Amino acid sequence: MGLLVRVFLLSLLLVSSLAQLPSQDILALLAFKKGITHDPTGFIADSWNEESIDFNGCPSSWNGIVCNGANVAGVILDNRGISGIADLSVFANLTMLVKLSMADNNFSGSLPANLGDLRSLKYLDVSNNGFSGQLPEGVGKLQSLQNLSLAGNDFSGPLPDSIGGLSSLQSLDLSRNSFSGPLPDFLKSLRSLVSLNLSYNAFTKEIPSGLGMISTLEYVDMSWNQLDGGVDWKFLVESSVIHVDFSGNSLTTANPKELKALAEISETVKYLNLSNNQLSGTLIDGVELSTFGRLKVLDLSNNQLSGDLPGFNYVYDLEVLRLGNNAFTGFVPSGLLKDNLWFK
């Protein structure tokens, strides 16, 4: 009888000790902490420690941690001046993670192959750090992802085709990196996309057709890449986009009358920047400009445009017009001397 009692008591002790083990979420966070080399405010160093573990499963008292019941739902470390190698592979165990944001720090590392295991992730922002390497195919498994911001790092290589499967993605910001290769056709498959920023990379070839098929798209920035070919006028005429920036590329016009498409531009377009390209030909006749939509900013500077300037007499919404460093001739029309129009 005494033996049975001792076995029973040992079993209780074993169960009790197991219950006090940190959860896999906590272990993942502690593993990530090991890569931190500099934490000037002690945001992680003074908070993420075993002495303050909440054995309910989620360390709600830790800085930057958002809990949903017993699970970690958010890791938010933005703008803390933290340095270190960010081993994001350890977060694969955070099965209920919805938001991972560590923008504006000094993290280095790469996106791991198992990133796609974060099936609940909706928001990923590692912008303005020192991450590098190519994007893994696994990023395409993040089917819940709505916001992906990798801006201001040193990611390189072509974009994986798997990104085209991110059907929930609303914002994609890959600006200020070293991505290269042709712009992929799969961009038109991102049917929930509202904002697309691919500026300041080394993308090549033509602007992919079909962006107008994304009815939700409002913001497009592909400036300062190595794109060639023509402007996608069909996109500008048929889409509901608001802001378009194709500046700083090598875009050309196939024929001198191609710019007539400006007269048919969608009324949703408020900002259009085609500066610093190789556009040639003459601007459309001033009478046709009465159908110029609701454009507020138009930048055609630093191209190879020529001929007389149109009158711009019937353009009432335009606030900023940049036409400098072209080969225009003749006089400045009176329509460009309006008090509410900034002309250069």
TrEMBL record:
Keywords: Kinase, Leucine-rich repeat, Membrane, Receptor, Repeat, Signal, Transferase, Transmembrane, Transmembrane helix. Residues 84-230 form the Disease resistance R13L4/SHOC-2-like LRR domain. GO terms for molecular function: kinase activity. InterPro entries: Inactive_SerThr-Kinase_ABA, Leu-rich_rpt, Leu-rich_rpt_typical-subtyp, LRR_dom_sf, LRR_N_plant-typ, LRR_R13L4/SHOC2-like. Residues 23-68 form the Leucine-rich repeat-containing N-terminal plant-type domain. It comes from the Eukaryota. SMART domains: LRR_TYP. Residues 1-19 form the signal peptide. PANTHER family: LRR RECEPTOR-LIKE SERINE_THREONINE-PROTEIN KINASE GHR1 (PTHR48003:SF4), OS07G0626500 PROTEIN (PTHR48003). This is Putative LRR receptor-like serine/threonine-protein kinase. It comes from Ananas comosus (Pineapple).
